[in-house]
Structure formats: C-alpha cells, structure tokens
Design a protein that fits this description.
By secondary structure, the protein is an alpha/beta fold. It is 42% helix and 10% strand. The structure holds zinc ion.
Length: 358
C-alpha cells in the first residue's frame, strides 16, 4: 500500500530490527551503511549496529540511495504481495482442496518446493502442507453446511479416514465437524499496511476482527481466535475481507474517512454502547475518556470506558485511537503508541513531529 504515513520513531524501528519483528513488514526497510545492503525488518541475517543503519519507507528509496537488496531476505519481493506462480498454486489449492501435492508436482509447474515452503512459512506462519490441510477443512465445513454427512464429506474432501478427518478438523478449528455445522465460520487473512501487518477476520455477514498483527504465528492465532469467537476460524478470504482491504488502502492513502464494510462487534451492553460512542467521533477529531463517559451519561465510569476502549476488536473502523487523555497525552493503544500517533497524524488530528532520524 502506498501511503502518506510517516515512518515509526527510530527507537521503535531499532527495537523491531533487534527483535526481527516481522509485524513491521512493509512499514520500513533498513540499509546497512557498512555493507551497502538493504533488508526487511525481519531479516534473518546478522544484527547490524544501530549507528550503521539508515531507514527507508520503501525499497525504491533504498535503491535510489545506492543500497543493494539483501540475498537472504529479498526486500524487493514484498511479503503480502503474492508472486504470480504462487498465486496460481493457491487458486488451485482452493479449487480442489482434496488434492494432495507432492514435491514433483510442484516441480512440474516450475516451482521449487523449497521456495514454496519458505514463502508459506514467511507469509502464513505455516507450511504449504498445513495450509492445504486448512483449506481442505474449510471446504469440508462448506460441504457439511450444505447438508452432507461427516462420512461422505471426509472422503470427498480427500481425507483417508473419518477419524483422520475429525482429528485434522479439531486441530485446525478447535471444534468437531459436528459442532461446526451449527456455528458460524470466521475467515481470516493477514494484509499488509503502512503500519504493519493487519489481521482481518470476517463471517459471511460482517467483519468481526481487525487488529495489528503481532509475532504470533497464524496457526496459534487460529486457535486463540476460535476460542474467542467460539466458532471455527480458518485462513481464507471472502468478499467482505476484500472490500475491507480496498477501504483500508484508500484510508491509508488519505482518500477515505468513513468505512462502509459491515462490521459486527458483540460484547456486553456497556462495551457495545462505548464502541458505538467511539464510532460517533468524527475523523480528524479526538475525545477524552471523560467526554465519552459523559456522552454515555455515566460520568463516573471513566475507567470502564477505558477498559471497553481497550477491548475493541475492530481497530481503525471503531476508532479507539481517537480517544486520548484529558491532558492531551496519547495514553495507551493495543497496537503500540506510535501506531496511534501515526493514525491521528494521518487523520489530521495531530501535527506530525519533525523526523529526528533523517
Ligand atoms: Zn536481509
């Protein structure tokens, strides 16, 4: 995504480099002055000294400044953008999830199995085979919802036995095939943004999750989210996720102020009231926790408002970043204070501070 968002503060980027934090993917690139090479934040190569690092908002800026792309982390192939041959492969997997892929079949397509493996690890935090398994389970769930029995679904979906099917199903979704039929299903996708990886989750009716990714891998996240939503969560996409992605791109480009993609945010009565109050804060403005408590007619519930604010699951769209301390301080933000600051700068509610690391 192109954007008008400034780089994070230098100390935040230095920490990200030190921790090889992949959630900063797409946020910045680093050039190492002593070697003349530039990398992505999560590069597995040796740790450069802070004084030798230059930061860039894009790979092209690093190239223009005379740095060469690192051969380990390939900063020119951005994570989150899918190489065409891998995209074709993913389409084939989703078209026929029952198919089992052998290495020589990948080779027949001109794909190196090693590269496929690395790409899926880096972009989905799981192996290609685990991804295929998850797709298989997602398709099986669709079959069962349309009224097929677990037994016929297991075999049609490419599982060798019903027990193998049950086990794979439970492993990925946390529930049994039978339980899954009655519940909704959440699809989840990692998308890149100028502020890092965002996890977008949606049912067929609404977006239910939008949060900045941390370093937990997708496989772990799927289990956590399955618990949180008490319904199966599988990797994938749908038209609402695509709509949200397009809106986010426009938002980060400064071209969109109001999101139209339907969202759903179940919670306690108080949480839902608070989240609705947050949604009424106009783009480009901020409110204090006291303001929100007053608006809700509960002047003594400032702390509860802050808690509900922190429990928001749909970042940006439910603009919890627009709530600040009554003294104007930014206070906390689940995605990190620097992200809150950048969001408010993007919306024009804060004047950007000068770059200290130019
Ligand atoms: Zn590198």
């Amino acid at each position: 995504m192109e954007s008008h968002v400034k780089l994070p503060p230098a100390e935040v980027m230095l920490r990200a480099v030190e921790e090889k934090d992949e959630s900063f993917e797409g946020v910045f690139f680093l050039g190492v002055k002593t070697t003349g090479i530039f990398c992505r934040p999560g590069c597995p190569a040796r740790q450069p000294k802070p004084e030798n690092i230059s930061f860039f908002a894009s790979a092209s800026e690093a190239l223009v400044a005379g740095f060469r792309p690192c051969k380990k982390c390939h900063p020119l192939h951005r994570l989150g953008t899918i190489p065409p041959d891998i995209e074709n492969l993913m389409d084939e997997v989703l078209e026929d999830p029952s198919r089992k892929w052998r290495d020589y079949e990948l080779q027949q397509r001109g794909l190196k199995p090693d590269r496929v493996r690395r790409w899926f690890q880096a972009n989905h935090g799981m192996t290609f085979h685990a991804y295929c398994r998850a797709a298989r389970v997602g398709a099986a769930m669709g079959r069962m919802r349309s009224g097929k029995s677990a037994t016929s679904t297991a075999f049609e979906s490419g599982f060798d036995s019903v027990s193998g099917f049950n086990e794979a199903f439970r492993l990925i979704t946390g529930v049994s095939p039978r339980q899954s039929v009655s519940s909704v299903m959440v699809k989840i996708k990692r998308v890149t943004s100028p502020l890092g990886i965002l996890l977008v989750g949606a049912t067929d009716e609404a977006v239910v999750l939008l949060e900045f990714g941390d370093r937990r891998m997708l496989a772990t996240q799927l289990k956590t989210l399955t618990k949180r939503f008490s319904c199966p969560v599988v990797p994938g996409s749908n038209s609402l996720i695509e709509q949200m992605e397009a809106e986010l791109t426009a938002y980060f480009a400064g071209d969109l102020q109001t999101f139209e993609t339907p969202v759903e945010f179940p919670g306690t009565d108080f949480q839902v009231e608070t989240w609705n109050a947050l949604r009424s804060i106009p783009y480009g403005e901020t409110r204090s926790y006291q303001d929100i408590a007053r608006q809700l007619g509960r002047e003594n519930s400032v702390r509860a408002v802050a808690n509900a604010n922190g429990a928001n699951r749909i970042a940006i769209v439910i603009p919890c970043h627009r709530v600040i301390g009554s003294d104007g301080s930014l206070t906390g933000y689940g995605g990190g204070l620097w992200r809150k600051q950048r969001l408010l700068e993007l919306e024009g509610a804060l004047v950007p501070e000068p770059d200290l690391f130019d």
